[in-house]
Amino acid sequence: MTARNYVEFVHVDKSYDGRTLVVDDLNLEIAKGEFLTMLGPSGSGKTTSLMMLAGFEAPSAGRILLAGKSLVEVPPYRRNIGMVFQNYALFPHLSVAENLAYPLSVRQVSKAESAERVRRILDMVKMSAFAERKPGQLSGGQQQRIALARAIIFEPDLVLMDEPLGALDKNLREHLQLEIKHLHDELGITVVYVTHDQSEALTMSDRVAVFNEGRIEQLAPPSELYEHPATPFVAGFIGENNRISGRIVARDDSRYTVETASGTRLCARSERNFALDQPILLSLRPERVRLGDDGADGENRLTCTVKEIIYLGDHRRIHLRLGDDTEIVAKVANTAGLGGVADQAEAIVSWGGADMVMLADGKAG
Ligand SMILES: Nc1ncnc2c1ncn2[C@@H]1O[C@H](COP(=O)(O)OP(=O)(O)O)[C@@H](O)[C@H]1O
Ligand SMILES: [Mg+2]
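^ thats the input. predicted complex w/ magnesium ion below
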């Protein structure tokens, strides 16, 4: 076993009704100590994949291994896996400390050792003052901290989390994202995390597996997913993007010239191989579009019409029309000036060829 394949999904299929595959030929290797996130829209098969890894659902085909062993034959109480779900299942009649001691008593940890571990974990999740409370006397965020503590107190091999922050408000969610990430870094545990929230996935993960209709569309570190999305689905799901459809009309090594239907010529750079005359989809992040004639030598330098300027506090969104058939959005930080850009007026915009990701799909889906 190498470090890469601590957890292994090998050609895993899952069907609940014997007809549709909700997980379709899943292949995935997760390294020991890694924080891997399964990200995708609702119904894309994330929870099913996690349940199969936990051993609660059996694959219809294929194998799932943890440290080289299949879990299917291992009864749940013998699996050394911690789990956290959206609806924290704390025991309501037990105190916080008793909830935390429970997984230790099941594993026959001594009373003294248990008390010490409960003390330490409460300290780690900043809940020391709440040891004697019942779950009903805690807020949602506090309950979820305890659920998290309970999932890691017995030092599991693997921790599975399914939308654990889904019920919390935005500020608390962002705060706990960082806390979970720091706990992972400190403890060196292997985490498989499920979310439909792309910013959560980008914030927390070593690598992200993007799920779509039961398949992994791309598996990569956060920055690579954002900078180099492999498919139109990933480009659309991770962050915001402008989609420009066109056709390749010229190529010079990694420099492609793409023409839109209305005749606008754009320069795009890619190390990938695309054929001349091929329909192509270009993805351009709104924050890469520079406004105004600031002398920057963007390989793309175009005149367009400003359709709308929307003020959003920390940034502005500028809706632009390019030629007859293309609209793009530019996102401009509130520190930058607007370069003389005014509503309904003509404006010069620019961006580099490498700022556009080329995707082999002519459809703007
Ligand atoms: N126990 C089940 N029985 C039948 N269908 C299910 C069951 N659990 C999930 N599904 C279906 O499987 C698909 C994938 O669901 P799920 O794995 O929960 O996706 P996700 O977690 O990405 O939202 C969905 O179409 C869902 O309706
Ligand atoms: Mg789910």
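The first strand starts at residue 7 and ends at 14.
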